[in-house]
């Protein structure tokens, strides 16, 4: 069984709109967390780099962090891009080895007039407790802290969805 975090939050938007804000506006709603940085340089700006294929704008693209100096760190490759339904991508920090990798899956489910956005971040069992990314926290504490961060991120997404005007 994979060590994982799962959080959900309702968003006042259609699944398609919630997906668009999650992917196109991630640089606006993402809130860096000093405890869970991708690189030692600190927080940059996140974005989904679009793949070249016109029929699948995000599939096979990348989630990247661009630093103020212009350098780019690849957080992970997009493995599923289903607008309004599902998004999945790899997630790594600069200190991860090739054997240490986690995955994020985001689901967008219509519930009445809202969308339930659910994030599942799994694969933490590939990263040992003594690894710098886990800060030596025991499993339960680490997952709780990481889950709290995802809750903050989804709350920020919800705020961005409510403040951003739909494309017209």
Give the overall silhouette: globular
| Main beta sheet strand tally, sense and closure | 7 strands, antiparallel
Counted beta strands: 7
What name does CATH use for the topology?
A: Alpha-D-Glucose-1,6-Bisphosphate, Chain A, domain 4
Order of helices and strands: EHHEEEEEEH
Cα-atom Rg, whole angstroms? 16 Å
* Distinct helical segment count: 3
* Overall number of structural domains: 1
**Arrangement of strands in the largest sheet:** 1-7-6-5-4-3-2
Residue stretches low in confidence (pLDDT < 50, at least 5 long) are: none
What is the compact description of this entry?
Residues 13-133 form the Activator of Hsp90 ATPase homologue 1/2-like C-terminal domain. The chain has 168 residues and is α+β, with helices and mostly antiparallel strands.
Would you kindly provide a written description of the structure presented here, covering whatever features stand out?
It is a single chain. By secondary structure, the chain is an alpha+beta fold. The chain has a single domain (4-163), classed as 2-Layer Sandwich (Alpha-D-Glucose-1,6-Bisphosphate, Chain A, domain 4). Helix content is 23%, strand content 32%. It has helices spanning 15-24, 26-29, 139-163, and strands at residues 4-11, 45-49, 62-66, 72-82, 86-91, 102-111, 114-122. A seven-stranded antiparallel beta sheet has the order 1-7-6-5-4-3-2. A hairpin with a 2-residue loop joins strand 6 and strand 7. The protein starts with a strand and ends in a 5-residue tail after the last helix. The model has no long low-confidence stretch (mean pLDDT 89). Residues 13-133 form the Activator of Hsp90 ATPase homologue 1/2-like C-terminal domain. Belongs to the AHA1 family. This is Activator of Hsp90 ATPase homolog 1-like protein. InterPro entries: ASHA1/2-like_C, START-like_dom_sf. Pfam families: AHSA1.
């Amino acid at each position: 069984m994979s060590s994982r975090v799962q959080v959900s939050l309702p968003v006042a938007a259609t699944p398609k709109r919630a997906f668009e804000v999650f992917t196109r506006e991630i640089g606006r709603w993402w809130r860096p967390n000093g405890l869970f940085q991708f690189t030692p340089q600190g927080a940059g700006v996140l974005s989904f780099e679009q793949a070249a294929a016109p029929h699948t704008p995000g599939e096979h693209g990348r989630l990247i962090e661009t630093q103020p100096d212009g350098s780019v760190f690849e957080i992970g490759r997009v493995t599923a891009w289903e607008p309004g339904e599902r998004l999945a991508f790899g997630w790594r920090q600069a200190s991860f080895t090739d054997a240490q990798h986690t995955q994020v899956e985001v689901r967008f489910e219509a519930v009445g007039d809202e969308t339930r956005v659910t994030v599942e971040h799994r694969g933490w069992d590939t990263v040992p407790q003594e690894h710098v990314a886990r800060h030596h926290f025991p499993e339960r504490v680490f997952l709780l802290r990481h889950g709290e961060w995802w809750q903050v991120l989804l709350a920020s997404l919800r705020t961005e969805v409510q403040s951003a005007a739909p494309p017209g």
